[in-house]
Amino acid sequence: MYCTKPLGANEVVETFPVGRRLAFDAARGRLWVICTRCERWNLTPLEERWEAVETCERIFRDTRVRVSTENIGIARHPEGLKLVRIGKPLRPEFAAWRYGDQFGRRRRRHILYGAAGAVVVGGVYIGGFAVGLVTLGSFGVVNLPIQIANLWIAARTVVKLHPDDGQVIKLRLIDLDGTRIQPSDEEPGFKIQVRRGKKKKKKKTWWFEGPEALRFAGAILPRMNDAGGAKQTVQRAVDRIEAAGHPERFLLDIAGQNLYHAKYGEPGYISRMPDPTRLAVEMALHEEQERRALEGELWLLERAWKEAEEIAEISDSLLLPDGTEDFIREHGERRSDGGIERL
To answer: Which domain holds residue 83?
Structure first.
């Protein structure tokens, strides 16, 4: 251990509840606690490593958001623990459980609100007929509050975008129908069209690329998917991303397709996509935002790992008999039941 500052605690690795960021090398049997303040890698005592390394490997494989380079990977556990894995990268899987819960809650809320509105309107009509206040000629008067509510919903701002040039773009629910996704002009990627208004004289459009496109699309899609989706719909959305092999690849494929046309023939309108595809776009956008946030840390971690590995190799060699390091390197990757077989 090199750092004298508090390293924090975690509730995930039961055999080693120390640290908020752990780095491990399963092949060599090494475990470090990374200080979140000074970024120093603190090598743990030899006798405390094996069970903790096995647990870290299992948690890393089960964690949904992972980013890897050739030598190092990083994952964030829902509890907040960050795991840094040294070794060959794992194939990134795309899990459905998180989005199934999220879209399911939206769907239940949407159904609940719709049912509540129907009950209120039905009660007004039935009660009005019962007391003689509602006649066939007075439906317009009774409908007036409903019409006012619909006008308010149509006029209110549902998304605010803040481009880098300092302006503020306010979008209503109807404006979201003008959102398009197309291939980027300058580099591999996609661009997003944002439109406010529908009539030619009042209509205004913007195109955004790069990080702005990712950020703005990530803000718009949850509003477009406000009704959520059933379990089967969510699974079909996940299947679409899995078929592409990666969320980023899926977004590029969607942007490049000559599909989802408006009545004037322009392709790429997200509102014209089938529900599973539109849900898949939101999932992929969210995955990409989290992946890029994690990638920003990787190059720093890889540089720190190389320095820490040199120290660990010297430290361990002082405590182990000759030949132990070769034995661990040869047999340390044997696995049983998806974990590491302790030697």
So the answer is: 21-94+297-340
